[in-house]
Amino acid sequence: MRLDATLTQAAPTKTTEVLGVGVPYFVGMPPDFYQSGLLDFVEVTPETLCRPRQRGRRTSLELLPDQIKRAQESCGSLPMIVHGVELSIGSAHRWNSAYVEMLDQFYQQWPFLWHSEHLSFQTAPDADGTEVEAGVPLPMPPTREAVELVAGRCVELLERYELPFLLENPAHYLPGLPADAEIGDECGLMRAILEKSNCYQLLDLHNVYCNAINNRLDGFDLVDRMPLQRVMEIHIAGGSWQEGFWADAHDSRVPDLVWQMLEYTLGRAPNVRAIVFELLEQHALSLGTEAIEEELAHARGVWWLSRRNNSCAAR
Fold first, then answer.
1. What is the mean pLDDT of the chain?
2. Binning pLDDT at 50, 70 and 90, where does residue 236 land?
3. How many CA atoms lie within 13 A of 53 on its CB side?
4. Which of 4, 160, 210, 213 is most buried (CB neighbours < 10 A)?
C-alpha cells in the first residue's frame, strides 16, 4: 500500500508498507517475545548492536556480527525499521558521519523499510575544535538557518538510501530559544523542514505530552499544528517526574492522556504506517512482558478502531 497522492509526489521510489504495532528490539528480551504473534514489526536502534572504535582522533561505530545475527534470529520474519539516536542531524559543524557509515553497512546486512532520527543535536566543537558530546539531545532553534541545515541533510539521506526518512519531534526543556517569526516554534520548524526536504515525521506523542506539561501548553493544540499529512510513524511511551520536569524517560506505561492523544491523532493523520510503544531496555525488563503485552493490546485496539472508522468515512 502506497502513500496517498499528497505524499507520493514526493515519496521515495520504494513502497511504504502499513505495518501496525511494534516495539524496539531489546538484546535482553527473550526471543519468543518477538515470535509470539504480538508484534507486527520491530524497530531497531543499530547503535545498540555496535561498539565504538577509536582510530586516531576519529571514532567509528563497528557493527558486531554476533549481535546482528542474534537480533535477526530473535526477530525472525518481522518487518524492521530503524530508529537512530546518534546522527546529531542538527549539529552546526557536522553530523555524525560515523553513524552514516555504520548505517550503510547495517542496511547491507539487514535491510530496513524506513529510518528515523531526532530533530536535535548532541555534539558541538569547543574552543580548540574538539568535538564535545552533550549527553542528551538538544532542541533546534526555530530559525531559517536551522531549516536550511537540517533540510539539506534530510535530502542527502533520502537520496542515499532511496527510502523514507522521518524526523522525530523532540522533548525539550529549554524555553525561549531564538526564533525567526516566520518559523515560530517547534511545530513551525518541523513543518518548514518537511516542506523543504520532502521527508516525513515520526510524531512522538509522549514528547508532545512532555512539552505540554513542562511548558504549560495544550498537547492537542500542538498535535493540530503538526504536519499531520506527513506523519508516517507514531511513538507512545511513559515517563516520570525528575527534578521538577516530566521527563521522556521511557520507564513506565503510557499515561491516559497520551492514549487520548493517540486516538485523536489517528483520526487526523491519514498516512500513519506504524505505532511503537517505546521503552528503554532496562525498564522493559523491569516492567515485564505481561505489562508490555497489555500496552501493545491497547495500542492495537486503538489502531484497528481508527482504521475501521477511517475506512467507513471514506466510503
1. 90
2. very high
3. 10
4. 210
In Å, how far are 5, 59, 149 from 155, measured between CA atoms?
20, 25, 10
Between CA 261 and CA 161 the distance in angstroms is: 32
Q: What is the DSSP string of the chain?
A: ----HHHHTT--SS-----EEEEE--TTS-HHHHTSS--SEEEE-GGGGEEEEEETTEEEEEE-HHHHHHHHHHHTT--EEEE-SS--TT-SS---HHHHHHHHHHHHHS--S-EEEESEEEEEE-TTS-EEEEEEEEEPPSSHHHHHHHHHHHHHHHHHHSS-EEEEPPP----S----TTT-SHHHHHHHHHHHH--EEEEEHHHHHHHHHHHT--HHHHHHTS-GGGEEEEEE---EEETTEEE----SPPPHHHHHHHHHHHTT-TT--EEEE---HHHHHHH-HHHHHHHHHHHHHHHHHHHHHHHHHH-
Residue 300: pLDDT above 80?
yes
Q: Identify residue 74 by its one-letter amino acid code.
A: S
For domain 5-314, the question of CATH label 3.20.20.150 is answered with yes
Which cell goes with 224?
A: 493540530
Contact (Cβ atoms closer than 8 angstroms) between residue 277 and residue 238: no
Q: What is the pLDDT of residues 41-84, one digit of tens each?
A: 999 999 999 998 866 566 789 999 999 999 999 999 999 999 99
